Amino acid sequence: MELLKGIFQYPFEEMANGPAFLLQVLWEGFVAGTLYSLLALGFVLIFKASGVFNFAQGIMVVFAALSLVGFHAAGLPAYVSLFLALAVMGALAWTVERVVLRKLVNQPDLILFMATIGLSYFLIGFGEFIFGGEPKSMITEELGLPTGSSVIDIFDDIVILQHLDIAAALIAAILVIGLALFFSKTRIGRALRAVADDHQAALSVGISLNQIWAIVWFAAGIVALATGIMWGARSDVSFALQIVALKALPVLILGGFTSVPGAIIGGLIVGFSEKLFEVYWGGLLGGGVEGWFAYVVALIFLLFRPQGLFGEKIIERV
Amino acid sequence: MSIAENIEPLNTQDILQVNNIEVIYNHVILVLKGVSLTVPKGGIVAILGANGAGKTTTLRAISNLLHGERGAVTKGNILLDGQEIHNLTPNELVRRGCIQVMEGRHVFEHLSVEENLLTGAFTRKEGNAAIKRDLEMVYDYFPRLRERRRSLAGYTSGGEQQMCAVGRALMSRPKMILLDEPSMGLAPQLVDEIFEIVHALNQKEDVTFLLAEQNTNVALRYATYGYILESGRVVMDGEAKELRENEDVKEFYLGVGGEGRRSFRDVKHYKRRKRWLA
User: Fold this and answer.
1) Contact predicate B213/B46, CB 8 Å
2) CATH number, domain at B29?
3) Number of domains observed in the structure of chain B
4) Best of B70, B109, B117, B131 to disrupt the A interface by mutation (most A CBs within 10 Å)?
5) Closest residue of chain A to B178, computed from CA coordinates
6) Can you spell out the DSSP letters for A5-72?
7) I want to staple A259 with a disulfide (CB 3.0 to 4.6 A). Which of A283, A310, B20, B49 is the partner?
């Protein structure tokens, strides 16, 4: 009985009694959610265009952030470093397409997946060789990102909003809108969706897969850089970050591997639910729920809706 | 008659020459055993034959889409406008004005009909105005597509998808379209409609067609010249009119007479035997 109350009664009483605290928890969930969304977005881009789950996305986040910090440490101004870090991601995309993807065209997806695992280990080693293994701090202020916080009085209580989190949400939103427009309005975006639909047909109308792949990897690189800056600003820039990237997996299962809106909604769902569950129900299980909760949600989803919330409609004509 | 003039074997008039090509899949399976054919400028040439005769493979060898199917041209050469095209990517080939409409339509299901058409213009460098104009041209040839321009191509009917696929190819402003099995899975009336449009495009837009067809009857009505393929070899070729009149073709491919034989090659033996028995 006490257990049932613990599940169905006390948490809701707690929410009702402390609405400001609930808001704070929801805000934290939202912020975590936007970061998950950004992470997942990088995966979705590459999966859509080439059907490959890019295991290296996590290390790309780290690599992008490290190059940014590295260029700045070498004495360059912050914005020049940002530009150069983008150039590094572009060069990476071009190299991956040339050296890895082009050689593996028409191989089974599993082989491409293995190749991305290889790529991620290469990038870990290469990154440590160039930048060293110790954690570095993100150049948050130099990039003009706000660092303060605002306190909002509400319900006779306070909610604290970090300005950095607000900026993160805004940047994520701009990035997503930009990508959505790029996909739906431009010639390259259209070609990208065509490739996602049918490789052979895309080839037959003269769309160059190599070009498309390089562009997609570059777009994923841009997203990785944004994620790296935001995540790095909240903690440190270290290789441990790439483990966080695995959180994108439940997000993708929830949202569908091929859907940009799915990645965003999935990220938010994971962010909200794991924070709420941790705070209000976590005590029942001894805490530390945040680490695995998302995976359980994903498992349940797999049982009932394997294509995800927004997975590509499976078109069937009758 | 204009058909006879079109197929005058003048080499300078040939847009495409396929010389004795051999195609092997997966390094072991020999599918084409020396196929040669020529397509005159402005002609409609049909490759005919049963399932597995090598029609699609021939088209894919020309459009260089074999690679994706783990196939490779191991002998012979293919000339487009007198130039070797063996090593070109499909992208470069489309730029040179040769595009394939694949068997089974292969429209981009999650793109709208109009977006599908626009992907066909991917290789073109002209401004939007020219592309808009061509879009209108395609809609004029396929009024049904204009009606369905906003719907997802995956939800349109088979006939509309075939039209969409042909229209998409047209958007690249090709000199030559390789059309693989346009009649597949379509009602006879629609097949006629599509062939009428092919004929119109050939006449008015000056597009040369090389088409692979199982529907010998329709194909020979619209084509100027035909090749009959069997087991990866050309077993017969001639003007469409001749082929239509040919007794053996009639019996075996047009379903006039015949008593359940399996192969065109058997025809001669069968004839001989019949004569002997008679």
Assistant:
1) yes
2) 3.40.50.300
3) 1
4) B109
5) A204
6) HHHHTHHHHHHHH-HHHHHHHHHHHHHHHHHHHHHHHHHHHHHHHH----TTHHHHHHHHHHHHHHHH
7) A310
Tokens of B116: 């599908």
pLDDT score for B166: 92
**Please, is B124 exposed, middle or buried when counting C-beta atoms within 10 Å of its C-beta (0-12, 13-18, 19+)?**
middle
Helix (H) or strand (E) holding B179: strand B176-180
Amino acid at position B232, single letter: G
ipTM more than 0.95?
Answer: no
The edge-to-edge listing of strands for the beta sheet with B14-25 is B29-40, B14-25, B71-80, B83-84
Place of tokens 């130099």: A142
**Owner of token pair 């529907």:** B215
Indicate the burial class of B233 (C-beta count within 10 angstroms; 0-12, 13-18, 19 or more): middle
Cα–Cα separations (whole angstroms), residue A145 to A139, A142, A169, A177: 9, 8, 12, 20
Do residues A1 and A9 lie in contact, with contact meaning Cβ atoms separated by under 8 Å?
Answer: no
Q: Residues A130-149, buried b or exposed e (16+ Cβ, 10 A)?
A: ebeeeebebbbeebebeeee
Chain-chain contact of B90 with A315 (C-beta, under 8 angstroms)? no
Provide CB contacts within 8 A for A119, sequence distance 6+: A55, A56, A96, A100
Between these two residues, A181 and A161, which has the higher pLDDT value? A181
Q: What's the length of chain B?
A: 278
> What's chain A's average pLDDT?
84
Residues facing B229 on adjacent strands: B234
CA angle A153, A155, A161 (to 5 degrees): 40
Q: How confident is residue B68, by pLDDT bands cut at 50, 70 and 90? A: confident
**What is the spatial distance between Cα B138 and Cα B136, in angstroms, rounded to a whole number?**
5
Q: Is this structure's pTM higher than 0.95?
A: no
Q: Which domain holds residue B217?
A: 2-277
Residue positions counted in chain A: 318
**Rounded to the nearest 10 degrees, how much is the dihedral formed by the CA atoms of B115, B117, B118, B119?**
90
Instruction: Compute the mean pLDDT over every residue in chain B, rounded to the nearest whole number.
Output: 84
The domain segmentation of chain A, as residue ranges, is: 2-304
In Å, how far is A197's CA from the nearest CA of chain B?
Answer: 6
Q: Using one digit for the tens of pLDDT, what is the confidence trace for A85-121?
A: 999 999 999 998 888 888 887 677 788 889 999 999 9
Per-residue pLDDT of B24-50, as tens digits, reads: 988 888 888 889 999 999 899 999 988
Using DSSP, state whether A137 is helix, strand or coil.
Answer: coil
Q: Which two tokens stand for residue B117?
A: 């058409």
